[in-house]
Amino acid sequence: MSRAERHLLLEFPTSESMLEAIANLRAAGFNQLETYTPWPVSGIDEALNLPKSPVPRIVLFAGLAGAIIAYLIQWWTNAIDFPLIVGNRPAHAAPAFILITFETTVLFAGLASLLAVLALSGLPKLWHPVFEAEGFESASVDAFWIEVKLQGEPLNEKRIREIVAPSGVTKIVEMMRNEE
Amino acid sequence: MIPDVTDPVIHDVPNDKGLTDQLLRPLWKFTGRWWILIGITGAGTVWMVICIAYLFRTGVGVWGNNIPVAWAFAITSFVWWIGIGHAGTFISAIMLLLEQKWRTSINRFAEAMTLFAVVCAAMFPVLHLGRPWFAYWLAPYPATMSVWPNFKSALAWDMAAVATYGIISLTFWYLGLLPDLAAARDSSTGVKRKVYGVFALGWRGAGRHWRHYKIGYILLAGLATPLVISVHSIVSLDFSIAQLPGWHSTIFPPYFVAGAIFSGFAMVITLLVPCRALFELENVVTLRHLDNLAKMVLVTGWVVIYAYVLEQFLAWYGADVFEFQLYFRDRLFGPYGFWFVLMLVCNVLVPQLYWIHGVRRNPWALFFTSVLVNVGMWLERFIIIVASLSRSHLPSSWADYSPTWVDLSILFGSVCFFLFMFLLFLRLVPFIPITELKELRAEIRPKTA
């Protein structure tokens, strides 16, 4: 059962002014923030207090899985199930198996990094309420947006406008968003 | 005069909006010249497909290959194409990790070159299989015949290496493209907006996305880095695990990797110079980029020269009569002597022009010399393969090779196919990384209050 909540979208012309507004909003107790930026602004993770991404750990395990699976397949098929003796070389030939083991490690780890980034970001998700906001196209071009959830009293909207005004906000758009 | 290293990597960029519009423009505006080029390369591609159909219908006998020269044009072209790809990964992955900021403008371009070069490369071993419709036998699937691939065979190694290289290059390229596809979506309307929207997967540049994205992208760069070394090393093992004079050598892996990066950088120049002129990108692909690329060709060229010298030296120092005869008699005075000398001219002499400042900064001089380097690198693989196979240990089995029209057509067709894919890429996706350039611009821009 989802319930529509009101959010405000604030547009800023530069990354610096956006970061300043985030700091001021957080200081005033607005912690449910999200940003939309055309490129990864450094300092945003700290500003939003985001935890460390689990992507590296996922990639590590995927890589290890790739190595183990590739080696086991080569060993079991070539040395156990159907030993192929060519030129009197050993059926279990570790040096020859290392090449495919290495390549499969990279393959699994690489695919895992793409899939982990997408899955953790909740993508693909072709429609999102922010896309309905007027002028939001600039978020991928040259503008920096903050999304604030309107909590508590109706007066809060006025307070937010007052907090962000000195940072040079260029546009404020209202948005309805279902709680996930 | 300003020293080269401090030249700006981008200039005349008014703001992020202007930059985005400039770099997205090739997606919306169709030029007549592009249609002419796509027509020519498309026709070449169709001709290649016809020749491949003829090859499949009749068999590899339509090629000039025969015992002892069982590997000829197909494997030469395979090694050449896969080598060309390596510079793309070098630029997109290794230079990212080394924080070479100048690479940003040419990064996606070089990666796309990798992708299409791998496609062309992967085609050749399959064509060479004799019964290409059984190519899937290389995968360890549970077959009803209950036999498995032989993983001690170079063919299985090649499949793993090339498949991994292709898939990881595509993954890396696509992840880097995602924010730019979102920019293309947001700058367009109608059907185009929907198509770019689907491929952008709903990317909205949220802080929580970038957090995963940044680390994921760096990890992919780190994973692609060893592929630059490993893929061509594995390709070189196809040769060096054999006992044939001219192949049986431990210097092959580093020699091949250097040659791969050498030819790849030359191919980047070959593609970049016309594109830069065609799409008026002189402000983001500056003379400094071309200058740096030429220097990379020169550096890797010297590694290749070192390998050439060492090969000759070891043939003499190793005191193996077959090796000695191959390197000191057959290479120069044998039936492929002319091509060997031409290879030396293209790979050893031509790159020395890049010592000259004026050549490094003259786009069309770079273009023509880089084409010669690519010709030279193709000949290098041809000499390694054909000149060695034609003069094995047993003089009674010596025989020469000459290509047929099908050999030449498929090689020519693969070049057309490569350029065809590349031209489509130039029109369908932003080929200069817009997001990364904006980030770079923000970094190098003088901070204003």
Essential attributes:
heterodimer, A: four-stranded antiparallel sheet, 5 helices, B: 449 residues, mainly alpha, 15 helices
Would you mind describing this structure in some detail?
The complex is a heterodimer of chains A (about 180) and B (about 450). With about 180 residues, chain A is of the alpha+beta class. Helices cover about 45% and strands about 15% of the residues of chain A. Chain A contains five helices and four strands, in the order βαβαααβαβ. The longest helix of chain A has 27 residues. In chain A, about 40% of the residues are buried. The mean pLDDT of chain A is about 85. In chain B, α4 packs antiparallel against α14. Chain B contains 15 helices and no strands. By secondary structure, chain B is mostly helical. Chain B starts with 15 loop residues before the first helix and ends in a 5-residue tail after the last helix. Chains A and B meet through β2, α2, α3 and α4 of A and α1, α5, α7 and α15 of B.
Could you give the count of β-strands of chain A? 4
Distance between the termini of chain A: 9 Å
Helical fraction of chain B equals over 70%
Shape of chain A: rod-shaped
Q: Biggest sheet of chain B: strands, sense, closure? A: none
Main sheet summary of chain A:
4 strands, antiparallel
CA-CA gap between termini of chain B: 31 Å
C-alpha Rg of chain B (nearest Å): 23 Å
Order of helices and strands of chain B: HHHHHHHHHHHHHHH
Question: Average pLDDT value of chain B?
Answer: 88
Sequence-ordered SSE layout with sheet pairings:
The complex is a heterodimer of chains A (180) and B (449).
Chain A lengths: L3 E9 L2 H13 L5 E4 L7 H5 L6 H27 L12 H27 L23 E6 L6 H9 L6 E8 L2
Antiparallel strand pairs in A: 1-3, 1-4, 2-3
Chain B lengths: L15 H13 L3 H27 L14 H25 L6 H24 L26 H33 L3 H10 L7 H34 L11 H27 L8 H31 L3 H13 L3 H13 L7 H4 L2 H27 L15 H24 L5 H11 L5
